[in-house]
């Protein structure tokens, strides 16, 4: 495969990641329009967001396992077809039920593409270029992850919510056609495919009930008996899943992969960092639009500083990763990430907007510079590359789901502490309650970041010990 073709292939796979991650966040902005146009209550419309994320997390491991048997490219291409078809269904939806069907088809396809795109990069790029390739992939994917509120507001300012889904269709078609002719041919694989149906079933129920408990908890409170019961079911299914995987001949995931300390710690640290990344998506629109009384267009422009900074930071970090070490680069950028988080725990709400924009741009630099993909794939043995790629996507999506819940819960809990009562709305008559809640939320984000720094520092120590043994 020619050098210019591998870079084009990288952009083709990465843009699918962009659209799929964008669809996980941009729909939040469209919920008010959707509820009005489809004449449905807000709590039912929230499932438009939830069902997509839940289905992706339920199927990622399955497709990662299948990719090792069938081939990364075959599954990626099939996922592109399903995601594009699902986008078409969503764009033409006349009712909530049809829209949810479209989101299910989208999630099915997105899980296939997300589980394989990192594996494709590892397959086509030589080792000395992988850091840069992972960095570019991270930029484009993170743009989708972070730019949802700003881009969504811009689209809805001029067009209807249908265009959020229509835009996916030409990109999906172009990526599929490109892949049909330009993706490399994979080596022949065994035609006998083994399925771990018991593992898939227990895992799917475990991850599904986990997310359902999170989304229910946000709505009705985490101390509700139904929420606690659903969470207990999830814990029980996780225990059964582990037991099943240890006793089947061909498990959905070989749990031995988690015996690789650096890989496991890299996955957990990625989950934590992605959780922090969603705080801005949840809190900043409230702060800028409600507390600072800015227009939606200006709010969108200010928030776009985060993904733009991410674009600048990720390739630079990827370059240094190729020259040095992904863990060292990631650790340095986590300390950069700490600067705006600390500042946001003390912010007074009267800061100059230019200063504030520069401050939150450091969130994008810290996030973009965190080299989670090179760390995860670099510590995974060759036989685990497929499942490691799907685990990277899984932990990223779990982090997104947890981040939304933590940001919302800590924000409202912090407001409640200030108000001495339960608050689950923006306090228009007491804006200082919101500022207190925002401070509390970013304290929790800072604690999560400190845990991530500790984990990555430990990975670095393990790297040093390994190099010492080799010498």
UniProtKB/TrEMBL annotation:
Topology term for the membrane: Multi-pass membrane protein
Subcellular location: Cell membrane
A Pfam cross-reference name: MFS_1
Keyword Heme in record: no
Domain Major facilitator superfamily (MFS) profile: 9-464
Keywords: Membrane, Transmembrane, Transmembrane helix, Transport
Transmembrane portions of the chain: 48-67, 79-102, 108-127, 134-155, 161-179, 200-220, 226-244, 265-288, 294-316, 328-347, 353-370, 391-413, 433-459
InterPro entries in the record: MFS (IPR011701), MFS_dom (IPR020846), MFS_trans_sf (IPR036259)
Claim: Membrane is one of the keywords in the record: yes
Record's protein name: MFS transporter
Organism of origin: Companilactobacillus baiquanensis
Biological classification of the source: Bacteria, Bacillati, Bacillota, Bacilli, Lactobacillales
